[in-house]
Amino acid sequence: MVLKSSSNIKIEHIVKIITYTIGLIGFLSVFKHISFIYSSIFVVLSFLAAYFDYKKSFYIPRWFLNITAIVVILLSLFRLSLDNLVVPAVEGLLILLSIKFLEEKKFRDYMQIYLISLFLLSGSALLTIDIEFSIYFLIMIFMMSLSIVLLTYYSQEPDLGLPKSTIIKIALKSLLIPLISMPMTLFLFIMLPRTSYPFFNFLNRAEKAKTGFTDNVRLGSVSGIQEDATAIFRAHMEKIDERHLYWRGIVLDYFDGASWKSTDRIRRGDEISTLILKGEKVRQTIYLEPYEHRYVFALDKPYLITLKDIRKYGDLTFSLPKEVDKRIRYDVVSILSDAISEIDIDKEGYLQLPENISPEIIRLVKKITEQKEVVKSILSFLKGGNYKYSLQNLPVSKTPLDDFLFKHKSGNCEYFASAMAVMLRISGVPARLVGGYRGGYYNDIGKYYLVPQKNAHVWVEAYTDKGWIRLDPTPASIEGFVSPHRRDILFKIRLILDTINYYWNAFVISYDFEKQLSLFHKIQSGIRKPEIKLFIDKEKLIKYLVIPAVLSLSVFMLYVLISGRKTKEERLIALFLKKMERHGYKKGKSEGLEEFVAGIKEEDLKQSAYRFVEEFEKHYYKDRRFTKEEIKRLKSMLK
Amino acid sequence: MEIRSNRIDYIIESLSKYLQGKTRALKLSLAAFFSKGHLLIEDLPGLGKTTLAIGIAKALGLSFGRIQCTSDLLPTDITGLSIYSKTTGEFEFHPGPIFNNIVLVDEINRATPKTQSALLEAMGEEQVTIEGRTYKLPKPFFVIATQNPVEHFGTFPLPESQLDRFIMKISIGYPSSDSEREILRGGSKREELYSIEPIMNRDEVLQIQGDIRSNTYISDRILDYALKIIEATRSSKYLNAGLSTRGALALTYTAKTNAYFHGRDFVIPEDIKELAEYTIPHRVMFKEEYENLNKKEIIKSLIEEIEVPA
């Protein structure tokens, strides 16, 4: 039966569109992790394939494609190594997928495409644990179930077209499959152990923050810095005054003329009892993304961080024994104190200057601090307007500070902070650099600060009679740090997406094994002591156990009643009737078998149907049980 | 058990020569006969009822008697009576026409109720009692009664309770024009019928009857099906009264015969279905408003509602 009409949509077209979409989803899920060459090969080949499919005039011969596919598989096998397992495999799969696209597609080719796409998606799950995965996954499952249903039509009748309404109906029904599977997923969510870092990340060198925070400040090595908008951490807390938004990470004390380092000298002070902090207490819960250092960030000035293996230092910085290689969560208590009162400091260390410090700088410092308060005058000198904030055209030289102060007069926070610290030290004021982040976007829905990598910042702490006070010589306006440059819709969408991502991290990824265990124990103890429960919590028992049990039992009974258990004979006759139906004959319920067979017009069919019916009736209406051989024989007659 | 359905087929084939266009009626009559029941033919006169009866009797090698009913027909005219014999000085029993294997009772509805009941009693009991003595009727014993559906004047229609005693009620109907042309060309073949060689003999007939009754298997599945039909007639909105238990027995007996005729030693639902329009309508009482409808069609529609076992 060929249905052809202009209002009908050809199944083949839909299937092809869906197939390309599924492939695209597989590609998108791994896109971020693979090299550009493979991505471009895939895109080019897919477009070519789509064009061929559209034109339907030319297909590359199958044997050629098969040989290419084998070569690709072999090549990716060679590229595999123990510390680089997933990415080459994914890249190989991607090329295979584009080769499959190029083929003239038959039923099995479609299936292969779906399988490869699914593999790609699973590959992405090994590389990342982002929420995008679940979105891709849901879309893919829906598309696949829809497509497989349509493909069964297609394989029966390649030219088949269906009216729009029918297709929508099929689509809705296919949507049911992922929906029905949801409750099952929920069950797995509770039961399965899960990792909070990508599964195979230890094999692949994980993709980590490339710009942003560093554990040393190096001047004069790069001429430009790329802004990186990816999040470094999210801090769940109440909104506070933007002036206080300095996230402390590391303290740097040693300057060799080009770069700042953190030395162990100042870290001796594990005992921080000498520190006095006065001010408002702020609690935060911080979700820190994996990055390449050990330092954890907290709102200036952090007092207490609750995290396993955390170490606190005398300069109010905190670090872990090893790099942050997975997403971590910790609680912080910070105090919005103006100063860190420390009585006994290593003045010599904080007054250290590089040996080759140029006399020009010393002269400059003398000039601007003459008969004035040192700290204020230096701060106003740098912030006064002579020096511009810039991420481009940074001085590249061996004496970056001189170049910054006298030639370029523009630089990023590192230059400003370095210059200030050096100038303070020249004037005899102990000073140090503090590295961390500045600002952040407050998400009102999720109630958290989103701090992106580009907010990495360096400022100065000077030791005055009040103690260590924070000084930020960088003239960049607060605006750049606390609110987005563009308040457009795209940014809002990104913020909303980030909220979802935040919840995903907070509730799904952080849902840890211990919680699962405790839930499991709760369930177990509930089962173990039923009689106690019965007395203590009769109502709850009824609510949670008896009612569902009764409900499911009655559903089961109803099912049994409706469906009934089919006997061998009934199954056999059902098989026969199904076959006859395929020939276009449907038995009425009051029609006897012979009567039914007599109505068949094709003589051959009638004869063979009659032979079956005769054989069947001989047993059925004589109440004789069928032996296995007889069933087999009758079944063979149906073929 | 040897199923001699080919013998039955042979009888039907050979009689068809003489009974053009009456093959169906012939088959049904044989079915009634081998089910050990009695047959009621409701039809207009002159359509070959007598020929049919004679044909069956002759082919089966059985004796044949005929009773033409009138309103003054007495019971003894059927059963026979004792007459004083001068030579022996005793009353000698002269058997009536009912003492034959196959008895044609023509226009039974013209006989008075008293005569009718004597006849029906004989059919039921397979014996007659005259003047204190009981005489067994010969075996096999088969009554073909006819009645004229059009004539109502001066007739005594059989009450339902008595109709129930007939295993089937059929009508012969007009022959097709082809068959009728043949009849016109050849004239009545009644004379030739009398001279045909019997195909079976009495023993064989009894043997087949016995086989059908006791050696043909009827599954519980079929019994359930029959019970469903019976239940349907009892609860039907068209009917005042459904099938009696005797009617139910008629269903299974005829079904067995039908199965045998088809060469089977077991019953299938079609065996019941095929004959239902001859076994059921005369046993059930239709509500007055449906009296004028085609009763066979109503019964057929009832059965169409019932699911077969497979």
Biggest beta sheet summary of chain B: 5 strands, parallel
| Strand line-up of the largest beta sheet of chain A | 11-14-8-4-20-19
The beta-strand count of chain A equals: 22
- Distance between the amino and carboxyl termini of chain B: 26 Å
Task: Summarize this structure as a short list of keywords or feature phrases.
heterodimer; A: 639 residues; alpha+beta; 3 domains; 6-stranded antiparallel beta sheet; 21 helices; 22 strands; 50% helix; 15% strand; B: 310 residues; alpha/beta; Rossmann fold; Helicase, Ruva Protein, domain 3; 5-stranded parallel beta sheet; two-stranded antiparallel ribbon; 13 helices; 45% helix
Describe this structure in words.
The complex is a heterodimer of chains A (639) and B (310). Helices cover 50% and strands 15% of the residues of chain A. By secondary structure, chain A is an alpha+beta fold. Chain A folds into three domains: 8-191; 217-485, no CATH class; 568-637, no CATH class. In chain A, the strands form six sheets. A six-stranded antiparallel sheet of chain A has the order 11-14-8-4-20-19, covered by helices on one side. Chain A has a six-stranded antiparallel sheet with strand order 10-5-18-21-22-15, with helices on one face. The two termini of chain A are 23 Å apart. Chain B is α/β, with parallel strands linked by helices and 310 residues long. Chain B folds into two domains: 5-203, 3-Layer(aba) Sandwich (Rossmann fold); 216-304, Orthogonal Bundle (Helicase, Ruva Protein, domain 3). Chain B is 45% helix and 15% strand. In chain B, a hairpin with a 6-residue loop joins strand 3 and strand 4 (91-95). At the A-B interface, helix 18, helix 19 and helix 20 of A face helix 10 and helix 12 of B.
